[in-house]
Design a protein that fits this description.
Blueprint: E1 26-29, H1 33-36, E2 45-48, E3 52-54, E4 59-69, E5 72-81, E6 84-95, E7 100-106, E8 115-119
Antiparallel strand pairs: 1-2, 1-8, 2-3, 3-4, 4-5, 5-6, 6-7, 7-8
């Protein structure tokens, strides 16, 4: 801290790259059928890329990351789907040797509570 009470250079946070950790990338389903269906009814599937989450009818792009480790990322996502666009804060946590992904969104219109996904077989 400086004499004025403001944080000095060492106390300022370093920007976090707006990328999703490599260990989280891939396909995850809420139920096993989300991973195996060929009929387009995989409503519980999420496909995670370097900077995006692709859902059944929407895509979320990570625009700002506020925390990131090999198994956790949180930040602001810009969503688009069904002719609409919105932003929302969200957190992703990976556990179970990379097999379990928990997504939690925050805000008044967010889905309440965390959603748990299981990695799809390769």
């Amino acid at each position: 801290m400086t004499a004025s009470g403001t944080p000095g250079p060492a106390a300022m946070s370093t920007p976090v790259p707006a990328t999703i950790p490599a260990a989280m990338r891939g396909r995850f389903g809420m139920v096993p059928a989300d991973c195996t269906t060929t009929m387009g009814d995989d409503k519980g599937l999420v496909t995670i890329g370097a900077d995006s989450l692709k859902f059944y009818e929407s895509v979320a792009k990570l625009t700002t990351a506020t925390k990131a480790t090999a198994t956790h990322v949180e930040g602001t996502f810009a969503y688009e789907g069904e002719g609409m666009a919105w932003t929302r804060k969200a957190a992703l946590d990976l556990s179970g040797n990379g097999k379990t992904l928990v997504l939690e969104e925050f805000g008044d219109d967010a889905v309440p509570g965390p959603r748990t996904y299981t990695r799809c077989p390769a």
